[in-house]
TrEMBL record:
Keywords: DNA-binding, Transcription, Transcription regulation
Stretch forming the signal peptide: none
Name under which the protein is recorded: HTH araC/xylS-type domain-containing protein
Top-level taxonomic group: Bacteria
Entries under InterPro entries matching the protein: AraC-bd, Homeodomain-like_sf, HTH-like, HTH_AraC, HTH_AraC-typ_CS, RmlC-like_jellyroll, Tscrpt_reg_AraC-type_HTH
Residue ranges constituting the HTH araC/xylS-type domain according to the UniProt record: 182-283
Keyword presence, RNA-binding: no
Classification lineage: Bacteria, Bacillati, Bacillota, Clostridia, Lachnospirales
Length: 288
């Protein structure tokens, strides 16, 4: 079997380097690949999923068992042949690189780490086979967004290649923590998601690093609601779920949702839903 994609304009950038994918191929390798080398800025990645064979690089010969990964860079002469009766199933990605004027940040100099290796061979430890299978599936099926997905998979392949020959070396760059201002929406959502029964305006303001008045203004800007309205929404949503899908008493529901008394809860519920909690439970269960 031979599958090849070599007429597609697939480009992606890592750091200050533009990667152009000129050939993507899958082959049951019955033929001999004679010694050949690639020009400046050209790299070939091979992954042998099954079968066995040999690769010669210059004067040296390497045995290729299943799960072998190797990369040949510019001017590295190499040849490949399968063991008779057990042909290799070979994935091949051919790339040509070009430096760009500006680069992406926080890449750990991945483009440099890739290009500085002109040859590497070893066993894959990063599940490249899964990436390659997804890559060929996307190229075949061409579902919505497949061009973005293919570029993402190729970027992932470069990272997996580097991780293989770096042997688990830690990253140089990391994501910076979000500032409180950047994370305000998330802090508010998390607070109402987990602490709505007992959350106070003062507690939320402290988490946001703001004053109470600033917090109230922020709530209006984001939700168009006051703190108490937002808290009431969360409590009433939880109440409707508990009334519909549990057999808990109304008093125990009121207690869980942080109300001082069942009377307080019942009054708040009636005002919100225009019916009593007991009536709401009956109607909701009749509908399910």
């Amino acid at each position: 079997m031979f599958i090849q994609y070599n007429n597609l304009d697939i480009n992606f950038t890592i750091g200050s380097t533009r990667f152009r994918t000129l050939n993507i191929a899958y082959e049951h390798l019955h033929r001999i690949i004679p010694s050949h080398s690639h020009g400046d800025n050209s790299y070939e990645i091979h992954y042998v999923a099954s079968g066995r064979g040999y690769i010669t690089v210059g004067e040296k010969t390497y045995e290729i068992p299943p799960n072998t990964l190797y990369m040949a860079g510019p001017h590295v002469a190499h040849a490949q042949i399968s063991v008779q009766g057990d042909p290799m199933v070979d994935y091949c990605i051919y790339l040509r690189l070009r430096r760009t004027s500006s680069g992406e940040k926080k890449t750990d100099d991945l483009d440099r780490l890739f290009t500085e290796k002109t040859f590497w061979i070893g066993q894959d430890n990063c599940q490249i086979k899964n990436t390659l299978e997804l890559l060929f599936r996307e190229l075949k099926e061409q579902k919505t967004g497949y061009t973005v997905y293919v570029e993402t998979l190729l970027r992932q392949l470069i990272v997996q290649m580097i991780r293989n020959y770096q042997g688990g070396k830690k990253a140089l760059h990391h994501f910076k923590p979000a500032t409180p201002a950047e994370a305000q929406d998330f802090i508010i959502e998390e607070s109402f998601l987990y602490d709505y029964p007992v959350l106070t305006l003062e507690q939320l303001a402290e988490r946001l690093g703001l004053g109470c008045r600033q917090t109230e203004r922020l709530m209006q800007d984001i939700y168009g609601k006051t703190f108490l309205q937002k808290k009431g929404d969360a409590r009433m949503s939880a109440a409707s779920i508990l009334l519909t899908y549990s057999d808990r008493s109304i008093s125990s529901i009121a207690e869980e949702l942080g109300y001082s008394s069942v009377e307080h809860f019942s009054a708040a519920f009636r005002k919100y839903y225009n019916k009593s909690a007991r009536q709401y439970r009956k109607e909701s269960r009749d509908m399910t």
